[in-house]
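A brief tutorial aside. Many learners find it easier to grasp structure tokens once they have seen a single protein encoded end to end. The record that follows does exactly this for Metallophosphoesterase. Read the sequence first, then the structure, and try to relate runs of similar tokens to stretches of the chain.
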Amino acid sequence: MKDRRDFLKKIGIAAGGAASVGFLPSTLLGQPVHKVLDKEPFQGLATIDIKGSVTSGGYALSNVVITDGVTVTSTDENGSFSLITSPSQDFIYMSTPSGYKINSLQNGSARFFLPIVKENPEQEIHFELEELKESDKKHHFVVLADPQIQNAYEVEQFLTVAMPDVKKTIESIESSNVFGIGCGDLVFDRLELFKDYNEGIKSTGVPFFQVLGNHDMDLGVRSDEMTTSTFNQLFGPQYYSFNRGDVHYVVLDDVFFIGVDKKYIGYINEVQLSWLEKDLSYVPHGTTVVVALHIPTYTGAVKRYPDRDSIGGIVNNRQHLYKLLEPYNTHILSGHTHFNDNMLLKDNLFEHCHGTLCGAWWSGPICYDGTPSGYGVYSVEGSKLSWYYKSTGKDKTHQLRVYEKGRHPEFQDRWCVNIWNWDPEWTITWFENGKSKGAPERIVARDPLSIELHDGPELPKRRKWVEPQLSDHMFFFDPSPKAKTIKVEAVDRFGNVYSETVTV
């Protein structure tokens, strides 16, 4: 995709023209949006006439995409826009353009929206942006799936163990073009803990874009449309887009509450699909598009557990999403499952289902497929993404765990290794006494450490309902009785080499 700055013509504002104003009025900064956001249907006005502008340093910005979540338009050569909205919509927001700083709320989340004042039939809305000092064609982001804090112990672990690790990783990147994505289940039903979540992300010093998870919703309501009130009050819209460098980013809400007993399905409603179709109409075909959502569109668990009901584990109408994304090179970022899966869904469609920051719900050091508690780290150069999984408290080179013969109760006579961020482009080789023995055998199996920590009705003590899960990233091999040293080497799709050596 061409540099977004090519599309953002700077036109000087004539004397006496509209004055540049802050992105959010001072009366809103630091306040929850609910101070001005009314989630109840407003019974007065039929429509609201919105006019506004986008400026940077006294210059107008053209071709900035603006939306109310239904209608999508863009600024003209004078940086101006107009649209007719309704009181059923809560926000006017922009798709933050490449080349400009991501503004932040005081809670650490990205700031790209303004609430609609529903009593006013005509409103003016102005967005102000700051041009970046360096190009964002090269940028980076971290993905935190399922922090899912529920109590004081978990808040303490989140704030003193997990988030300091994230902050250290971000600081090691040594770039000003870094942001974060909270990939849903930011909390575990206790929405009052959003304040602790916000404290954690704010400590990193970079803006975070938030995704709505099934445990982030208001559930004491009668319909899906009413579940996002608290989330909206704190973080703004639950679906939106933004741009960095040559990449277009989209966040979607794919958790559909069915109105009873905390039950939900993976589903993207027509309002969002229609909005996305319009949003993508401004994105040239062939562009790299990154879509963040909570429930994965698809995972290997569907095949690993064919008898399980997957209606709440994957997006049921995913094919309609895939159809909209066909003209693009797309990466989907998801969480929800508490295991790590990389799925090449189509030649131009790759899904990253992330292991979780909380692991197996803060019950120990790993997720229930053996993936360490951690998060995704991504680097973007032009239209190309590279990535690795960062285990909390470990070096970035920690990418596999080798088990000696006898550790796996279901494969007693075999050695095995868990390579949690594996995908089919990785090359795995095992060595005996320094000599290559070729590739180990990949088998759908459980992780031995997960079996030790999670198997049975009394384990783990903090979350007794957690059980070890099958994964597609377990590999098995058979050293000879003469083996003195065993090494497993894993080369990822980017040529990075990881290894672990065991002395027999």
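Self-check: The domain at 4-128 is CATH 2.60.40.10 (Immunoglobulin-like). If you spotted this yourself, you are ready for the next section.
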